[in-house]
Specification:
This protein is mainly beta. 15% of the residues lie in helices and 48% in strands. The protein has helices at 2-42, 46-49, 180-187, 227-231, 344-348; strands at residues 50-54, 59-61, 65-74, 80-84, 87-94, 97-105, 112-116, 121-129, 136-142, 145-155, 194-196, 200-205, 211-220, 238-248, 257-269, 282-293, 303-317, 322-333, 351-359, 364-372, 375-385, 397-406, 416-427.
Length: 428
C-alpha cells in the first residue's frame, strides 16, 4: 500500500513538472533577455568606483538634532556622475531592542546631480533627530551603503533626580521612560528576534468586492549571541514565519471576508553567500515547509502543504541607488487535501519568478509570474514612499496592485481573478 502511495505521489510530481516546464520554456526566454539587460545596466562599473560613508557622532543625546557628514568618494581614474539623495536612511541595532530606523535629511529640496572628479570626493551634511525612545549602545549601518557602519552611544537628556519634582532650572521634568514601549522592552527579552517578512498592505479594489490585505512576520528561533550560534553562526538562519492574506468584500451586507489564507511556516534563511559570481552583489538562499489553509470546514475547506526553495539574487548600483532582486521559487506539494481542493497544484503551479526593481527610498516595481498547468498568473505592485510627498511626515507607501491570477484565493482556486487595487503599505 505504501509503495503504491509513493508511486502515485511521484507520478503527480512528474505531471506537475512536465506541465510547468512546457509553459516556462515558452515564457521564460523573453523574461531572461529583459533580466540580463537590467543586470548589465545595474551592475555597471560605477558600483565599484563609488564609496559612500557617513561619520556619525560617537556620543549623542536622545531628543537632539545632530549633523552627520556624508562623503561620496570617486575611486575611479575618471569623472563620475552621481545622484546625491536629499534623504538617507540608517538603521540602529541594539541586542535588547528591535532595529530602529533613522532618517537623515539634507537642506536640498530635491536629489542633486553631482560630477565628482577622478580620485576626489563630494561631501554633504545631513541632519537627523534622535528619537527620545533610544538609549544605550547601538551599531549602525547606512541603508544601501554597507561601507558605513560603526557604533554610537545614545544617552537620555539630563533629568530630575527626585520623582515628581521639576529640575533646578524650573523646566519640565524629563522622564527616564518617556514612552510605554521603553518599559515594555525591559520585559520583552526576545523582541529583537521578531522582524518583518513578506509585504504588509491594505488595498481597496476598484471593484470594492475584491479588496485585500496582508500581514506577515518572522521570528528567529535561536539567540544570535548564544553559545550554540557563536559556535555555528549559520544556525541563526532558522525562523518561524506567519503570513495572512484576506480577501474582503466591502460591497456586500456586513462587509464579510470572502476568504482568508493562513500560512504558518518553518524555514531556513542564509546570510549573504560568499561563493557567488563577482557581478552579483548578494545571494541569499531560503528553504522551508509551509502549511496553507483557509480555516473553514465542510465543502468550503481548503488545505495544502508544500516544501519550497528560493534563491534571491541581488544587483545594486550605489551611485544611483538603483537595485534589482530576482527570486525564483520552486514548490513541491505534499499531503494536499484532495477531497475539497483536488488538483490545487494545477492552478497554483510549481514555479514562480518574483522580480523587484527600483530605487532605495523611491519608486519600486515588484512583479510575480506563476506558471501552472491551467495557465500563467501575473501580479504587479508599484509602491512609492508617501513621506516624499508630505515633507517627511508620513511613513507609509502608496501602493497600486494589478493581478490576473489563478488560485489567488484558496476558496475559488479554479477561478481567475483580475483586479486593480489601490491603498497603503507598511512593508513593500
Amino acid at each position: 500500500m505504501t509503495s503504491h502511495w509513493l508511486s502515485s505521489k511521484r507520478s503527480d510530481f512528474d505531471k506537475q513538472a512536465k506541465n510547468t516546464s512546457g509553459q516556462a520554456a515558452r515564457l521564460i526566454r523573453p523574461l531572461l533577455i529583459t533580466t540580463l539587460l537590467l543586470i548589465l545596466t545595474i551592475s555597471s562599473s560605477t558600483a565599484a568606483d563609488l564609496i559612500v560613508f557617513a561619520t556619525f557622532p560617537q556620543e549623542m543625546t536622545a531628543g537632539d538634532t545632530v549633523e552627520i557628514p556624508v562623503y561620496f568618494i570617486n575611486q575611479s581614474p575618471q569623472e563620475l556622475d552621481i545622484l546625491v539623495p536629499r534623504e538617507l536612511r540608517a538603521q540602529l541595532n541594539n541586542d535588547a531592542k528591535t532595529p530602529q530606523p533613522l532618517t537623515m535629511v539634507s537642506s536640498d529640496q530635491v536629489d542633486v546631480s553631482v560630477t565628482i572628479p577622478a580620485h576626489q570626493f563630494y561631501q554633504k551634511t545631513y541632519q537627523s533627530s534622535i528619537p527620545l525612545s533610544l538609549q544605550g549602545r547601538y551599531s549602525y549601518i547606512l541603508s544601501g551603503y554597507p561601507t558605513t557602519n560603526g557604533t554610537v552611544s545614545i544617552s537620555l537628556p539630563e533629568m530630575s533626580t527626585t520623582p515628581g519634582i521639576a529640575n533646578a532650572q524650573g523646566g519640565k521634568r524629563k522622564e527616564t521612560y518617556p514612552t510605554l514601549e521603553n518599559l515594555e522592552l525591559l520585559y520583552q527579552t526576545y523582541a529583537t528576534n521578531l522582524s518583518l517578512y513578506r509585504p504588509i498592505y491594505f488595498l481597496v479594489g476598484t471593484d470594492p468586492a475584491k479588496s485585500k490585505y496582508q500581514i506577515s512576520l518572522k521570528y528567529r528561533l535561536l539567540n544570535p549571541n548564544g553559545t550554540l550560534t557563536e559556535k555555528h553562526p549559520w544556525l541563526q538562519g532558522f525562523h518561524i514565519g506567519y503570513t495572512q492574506t484576506s480577501f474582503w468584500d466591502l460591497v456586500a451586507y456586513s462587509q464579510p471576508f470572502d476568504d482568508t489564507s493562513y500560512k504558518p511556516e518553518l524555514f531556513f534563511q542564509s546570510s549573504n553567500v560568499t561563493l557567488r559570481p563577482n557581478w552579483m552583489d548578494a545571494l541569499f538562499l531560503q528553504a522551508g515547509f509551509q502549511h496553507e489553509s483557509n480555516g473553514q470546514g465542510g465543502d468550503t475547506s481548503r488545505s495544502t502543504n508544500y516544501f519550497y526553495f528560493e534563491p534571491s539574487m541581488v544587483f545594486y548600483n550605489p551611485s544611483n541607488q538603483l537595485g534589482m532582486m530576482l527570486t525564483p521559487r520552486v514548490f513541491y506539494y505534499y499531503n494536499n487535501d484532495d477531497t475539497t481542493n483536488r488538483g490545487f497544484y494545477k492552478y497554483r503551479g510549481n514555479l514562480e519568478l518574483e522580480t523587484k526593481i527600483g530605487k532605495a527610498n523611491d519608486l519600486t516595481l515588484t512583479t510575480l509570474l506563476r506558471f501552472a498547468e491551467k495557465g500563467t498568473s501575473f501580479q504587479a505592485d508599484l509602491t512609492y514612499p508617501i513621506h516624499r510627498l508630505l515633507k517627511n511626515n508620513l511613513d507609509l507607501y502608496l501602493q497600486i496592485q494589478y493581478t490576473n491570477s489563478l488560485a489567488e484565493s484558496m476558496l475559488h482556486y479554479t477561478e481567475r481573478t483580475e483586479a486593480v487595487r489601490i491603498g497603503i503599505a507598511l512593508v513593500r
